[in-house]
Amino acid sequence: MRKILTDDTKRELSMHGSEQFPMTVSHDDLWDFEGKRVPVHWHGDLEISLPREGTAVYQVGQKRYEVRPGEGLLLNQNVPHSCCSLDRKRVRYSTVLVRPDFLYGEFGSDVERNCFRPFLQNLAVPCIRLGSENGWEQEVLKKINLVEIAFDQREYCYELKIKGLLCEVFSTVLRENQSRFEEYRPANHLELERLEIMLNYLNAHFDSVVKLQELADQVHLSREVCCRLFRKLTGKTVTGYLEEYRAAKSVSLVQSGQYSMTQIADMIGFSNASRFAAAFRRQFGCNPGEYHSFTAE
Q1: Fewer beta carbons within 10 Å, N or C terminal of the chain?
Q2: Partners of residue 92 on adjacent β-strands
């Protein structure tokens, strides 16, 4: 099972590409990930996701996006997001990841200041959906497909070809979405710092009862504001996040076959085995016992 390696803030730790060529294209299958989903994470790279089979469901902040083959989703940098499938059907997809300065060069350059900054530092535009209705979207998707082909084939000067194609892609996308950048809301690093503190606290205390007031006290906010901020940045309630985190933590215990469901429930913070089983079903689509039998085969 694949995992997204993150730090305590859910920032992805893996580098995409190399320092010399900071972009990459990956070909993924949601069923290869633990729980058949990509958990909440974020990174400083721009991400373009292109489903090839099945419908990918992205949670970006509080909004949900269903993206099908022939469509795409462009995710802004530093935006917490997760991905699962629709009705737990198989999803295969390609992902283009690129560090922004690979495209704009030096920070403070005209390209960075005039073209990219209104998008990259704008919380009002966490992502841009690429459908198939408009001509410019179709053209952009064709060029992204060419990026994927060039990356896979790696012919002489493929790096230059990819950079040129990506510059054309973002030139079109940013131009066509210029009106959206008028509602400029600068990225709030204080909010990300508070999210880091909350996630650290939840991850450290997942196996016990977590009181919302104690969580709110960690970031000096009221319970209501704390819950709103957490949902804004992760798209999940605190309770929903804890349920998913606890279920994920139970996998190794279930696979070991050494503990009863009641013991596991107690070890990972559920009040009883029934609640644990229900949370496990929501996360993995089967009961813990069925999961153990399947993985033991």
Answers
A1: C
A2: 29, 53
Task: Say if residues 80 and 44 touch (Cβ distance below 8 Å).
Answer: no
Least confident span in 127-131, 167-171, 180-184: 180-184
Q: Judging by DSSP bridges, how do beta strands 23-29 and 38-41 pair with one another?
A: unpaired
Q: What is the pLDDT of residues 7-63, one digit of tens each?
A: 877 889 888 999 899 999 999 999 999 888 898 899 989 999 999 999 999 999 878
User: What is 23-182's CATH topology?
Assistant: Jelly Rolls (2.60.120)
In words, the CATH class of domain 189-296 is mainly alpha
* Other CB atoms within 10 Å distance of the CB of residue 71: 20
Residue bearing tokens 């009181």: 211
CA–CA distance, 285 with 297 (Å, rounded to integer) = 18
Beta bridge partners of 75: 47, 127
Spatial strand order of the sheet with 72-75 comes to 23-29, 92-98, 46-53, 72-75, 127-130
Q: How far is CA 50 from CA 26, 236, 241, in A?
A: 10, 24, 26
The DSSP-derived string for 112-161 is IIIIIHHHHTBTT-SEEEE-SSSHHHHHHHHHHHHHHHHHHH--TTHHHH
Closest residue by Cα to residue 73 from 57, 53, 90, 89: 57
The length of the chain, given as a count of residues: 297
Sign of CA dihedral 48, 50, 54, 55: positive
What are the domain boundaries of the chain? 23-182, 189-296
Confidence of residue 187 (pLDDT cuts 50, 70, 90): low
Pairing of strands 72-75, 23-29: unpaired
CA-to-CA dists, residue 201 to 14, 108, 135, angstroms: 23, 37, 47
E strand residue ranges, the chain: 23-29, 38-41, 46-53, 56-60, 63-67, 72-75, 81-85, 92-98, 127-130
